[in-house]
Write a structure and sequence with these properties.
With about 550 residues, the chain is an alpha+beta fold. It has three domains: about 5-160, DNA ligase, ATP-dependent, N-terminal domain (DNA ligase i, domain 1, Orthogonal Bundle), CATH 1.10.3260; about 225-415, DNA ligase/mRNA capping enzyme (D-amino Acid Aminotransferase, Chain A, domain 1), CATH 3.30.470; about 420-545, OB fold (Dihydrolipoamide Acetyltransferase, E2P). The protein contains 21 helices and 19 strands. The protein has helices at about 5-15, 20-30, 35-45, 60-75, 75-85, 90-100, 115-125, 130-145, 150-160, 170-180, 185-195, 195-205, 205-210, 230-240, 275-285, 310-315, 320-325, 350-360, 375-385, 465-475, 535-545; strands at about 225-230, 240-245, 250-255, 260-265, 290-300, 330-340, 345, 370, 390-395, 405-415, 420-430, 440-450, 450-460, 480, 485-490, 495, 500-505, 510-515, 515-520. The strands form four sheets. Strands 11, 12, 13, 14, 15, 16 and 19 form a seven-stranded antiparallel sheet that branches. Helix 1 packs across helix 7 (about 115-125), helix 6 (about 90-100) runs antiparallel to helix 9 and helix 10 packs across helix 11 (about 185-195). The radius of gyration is 24 Å and the shape is globular. Bound molecules: adenosine monophosphate. Adenosine monophosphate binds near residues 244, 245, 246 and 367.
Amino acid sequence: MEFAGFAEVCERLEALAGRLEMRDLIASMLPGLDDGELSVFIRFVQGRVFSDWSPMKLGIGPNLLYEAAAYVAGRRKSDVVRLVNETGDAGLAIEHVLERRQQSSFFSEPLSLAEVNALLTRIAEAAGPQSQQVKIRLLRQGFGSMTPREARYFARLVLAQLRIGIGEGTVRDAIAIAFEVDAGSVEHAQQALNDLGEVALLARSGAGALDRVSIVPFRPVRMMLAQQGTIAEQLADYGRVAVEYKYDGSRIQFHRVGRVCRIWSRRLEEVTGALPEVVESLDAAARGDVILDGEVVAVGPDGRPLPFQAVLRRFRRKHGVAAARDAVALVPRVFDCLYADGESLLDRPLVERRSRLEGLLDDDYLAPQEVLESEDGIRAVYARALGEGHEGVMLKLPDSPYTPGARGRAWVKIKPEAETLDLAVIGAEWGEGRRGGHFGSYLLAVQDGGRLLPVGKVATGITDEQLGELHDLFRDLVVAESGNAVTLEPQVVFEVGYAEIQESPNYASGYALRFPRFVRARDDKGIDEVEPLASLETRYRRQGSRDGGGPG
Ligand code: AMP
């Protein structure tokens, strides 16, 4: 497949509104692709260049991209930026600027999908002091060989925003239709492999190949997630629950085979180097080859947990790890086991995974768990958890399998401040007065089938110190600027408190937040973890029937 063909499919997808039509169009493309193209097509159509767990990063911000496009078009970077501001879309802006380039004939052969993939891989691999120059040279090469329409989608791919609204579920279903396999088998294989491109290749060779897929050490799987709920509801519907403390730290997945240990963060970034004492602790405490799931907490001299930010700072650190280690002690709290001695435990019930875990990990790092049936009993654990400085409790269903990446009632979180949302930051406005020179408020969005829909702005709750920190964080993410407002590349997630959700015609989500309040930047969460519109709607409906009675 030529990259031009891919761009054409994207354009057709962009014109479709319905999920099923998109699914069918993708499904119709897949059988005709050869093996090399299939996995690339699957990733690209989702707006991803690399698989989720891949350590590869392009390392290209909007500015570098505009510079390369401007060079190829024989224009100034400021011309591109102006067009981005006019269109609100880097892809369209670059397409326009290339349409007007002086030299209209192409000297090079059209690029294939595989060649564009190879080019992007080389961009990601460029390292060292000259890496920026190398990346920009490769980008110019790419734009130089593309039609304006190809450049539109190439630019969007580079910025990881294809804007065609294709979610993972749509692609999963398309694979099932294209290769006549069960959608459930595709999903199951995806949970273990964490790369739909590879899953598609297996689907092509038949259902048997999909069913044989298993989790393997050193390829991290997505973390199982929790949703909000209440003690009463869980007990009413399920009778008994396994209760654990909800630690206020950062998630880890620990893999060990023999004496080789590696750790990944919640966003599946490898953090082995940043957390040496966690590696040492778990290496000493675990028996056999394992994959463990847990939370890393920072502990102060009095044994009480330190704020979450202290943990995050350690996760980010690449240099001076030894000094940081002296300042903040990190302790793992392990609550699940996904793999033990050659065997995947994902499909085993929680109780069984738990007993395996107890057999292979010393108590020191094991998160305590009790299976309880009474509301009073659970409330007592909850009160104790808060008293000891933890965030709350987790209620887990004893019979539930481990479902990577899924958020459901199998794991429910109970915490006092339940009314917070994780939202994508998609824009900002310059501040005035005391906030002059910084962004003073941020535009927030929920997700819906791969699109981000605004739901309000937040300014309250940001301290002066945070104002500067956030400004630094967002400065390089500005995609477009218009008057007082900027559009930001959606990369950062804010946890935001609110008093109430209201219906509102002012925002594309159809909702607005009353008294939104900044709680913290969730560096440990990716944009795909942002609150879905459907669950915002559920919260909206629920608040009408809420009795205001705390975590009940
Ligand atoms: P939240 O980040 O609010 O969606 O809550 C889910 C997160 O709580 C998980 O991703 C873990 O990082 C964290 N957590 C803390 N304690 C536990 C526990 N006992 N079981 C599962 N997750 C936990």
